[in-house]
Specification:
Elements: H1 5-28, H2 36-48, H3 50-65, H4 87-112, H5 115-131, H6 138-141, H7 145-154, H8 160-179, H9 191-207, H10 210-227, H11 235-240, H12 243-262, H13 278-289, H14 304-311, H15 329-335, H16 343-349, H17 360-369
Helix pairs in contact: 2-3, 2-17, 3-4, 4-5, 4-7, 5-7, 5-8, 8-9, 9-10, 9-12, 12-13, 12-15, 15-16
């Protein structure tokens, strides 16, 4: 069949538009949080499930209340190794309030597609990209995770130039994290490295940067062997004598495993040559959270800063204080996306026994698994 010139032009335009549509979907949607299909399922869940709707409406009210708030970026986050009363830490914590706003704005946009949320999120993300200078300090920069997720969810609101600005800034964070590693230090495999790998991995998947992804995946496997033990405990638990730090190790590793799964890589079930694995270390926490066991925190900590915090009157770090099971909620709501058996414990820790959706994360989990 021979096409005339007009028909050929129409078909060329149709083909070009189809290519653009596919490319935009690939650029905009779900590298670390929700794919386009998962967003659709999330929106359906919110409409169909009263518990999910109630949780979302609370988040949306938060988003509505901060639509016009100015961004408050700092040039450098300074929280690690500082007491709560430190003025630089107080300044950083006030600025980091932007992260909660970005979280609710990103989710509100994902569920509603209302551009007022994506525009507000974009304004704050760009403000941080233009003001914040990466430090390579993973315990500080792990706090940027909500910004990474919000960018993942709202990239459609960014122009090509704005994406280039943000992408370049994200790569600079990953580069600084890589450059800051001290191979001869405990920070090369303690909780710092768990957070570092999460940061690098999330940025890698966000930008489809294969070297960063490879570093994060290979680093995850090494971290499981070096940080976690075959009995499920962790280096940080023994170093700090605190389940607080065991949780602090697991949260970023679970987050990275979740992003990897979104991209077809199974890290959660990885078993290291020494028998250590992430799932075993999550289960190690269970008896301390279901009432079977208790643990007095910090008693035999080897880290002087833990004593400094206790002497400064920071109650959470008082020597001998009982581990609060509720502080493990984040671990179990993340882990329940891999193993549904943990959901009942998440319900218990959230004081919502029997709930279908005890937390918003469990709604996200459901949308991702259907």
């Amino acid at each position: 069949m021979i096409m005339n010139g007009g028909v050929r032009v129409v078909w060329r335009w149709f083909f070009l538009l189809a290519v653009i549509f596919v490319c935009v979907r690939n650029v905009v949607f779900g590298a670390i949080c929700l794919t386009a299909d998962q967003r659709d399922r999330l929106a359906v869940l919110v409409r169909a499930e009263p518990e999910a709707e109630k949780l979302f409406n609370k988040l949306r009210r938060e988003a509505d209340s901060c639509l016009n708030d100015p961004a408050r970026p700092v040039s450098t986050i300074q929280t690690a190794g500082r007491l709560n009363a430190d003025p630089d830490k107080e300044k950083s914590r006030a600025s980091i309030a932007d992260m909660r706003k970005l979280s609710v704005l990103g989710i509100s946009y994902a569920v509603t597609t209302n551009q007022v949320y994506s525009v507000a999120a974009k304004r704050t993300i760009l403000a941080w990209a233009r003001a914040y200078r990466p430090s390579g300090q993973p315990v500080d920069e792990t706090k940027l995770e909500p910004l990474f997720v919000a960018y993942d969810l709202t990239r459609s609101a960014f122009s090509a130039e704005e994406r280039a600005t943000t992408d370049g800034w994200l790569r600079s964070i990953a580069r600084e994290e890589l450059a800051a590693v001290r191979a001869d230090s405990d920070t090369a495999f303690n909780n710092w490295n768990s957070h570092r790998l999460k940061i690098i991995g999330l940025i890698g998947y966000l930008l489809d940067d294969r070297p960063l992804i490879t570093h994060a995946v290979e680093g995850f496997r090494k971290q499981i062997e070096r940080n976690l033990r075959p009995d499920g405990s962790s280096f940080d638990f023994h170093e700090r004598d605190a389940l607080h730090y065991h949780c602090y190790d697991l949260e970023p590793l679970l987050t990275l495993a979740g992003a990897a799964r979104q991209n077809g890589v199974n890290l959660y079930d990885y078993v290291a040559p020494n028998g250590a694995c992430l799932s075993k270390s999550v289960r190690f926490l269970v008896p301390f959270c279901n009432g079977s066991k208790t643990h007095a925190e910090w008693v035999n900590s080897k880290v002087a800063f833990d004593r400094t915090r206790a002497e400064a009157g920071e109650e959470k770090f008082e020597v001998g204080v009982a581990f609060d099971p509720r502080s493990a909620l984040r671990v179990f709501e993340l882990a329940s996306s891999f193993d549904g058996h943990f959901k009942s414990l998440a319900c218990q820790l959230a004081n919502k026994s029997g709930a279908k959706y005890p937390t918003w994360q469990t709604v996200i989990n459901d949308a991702c698994q259907r």
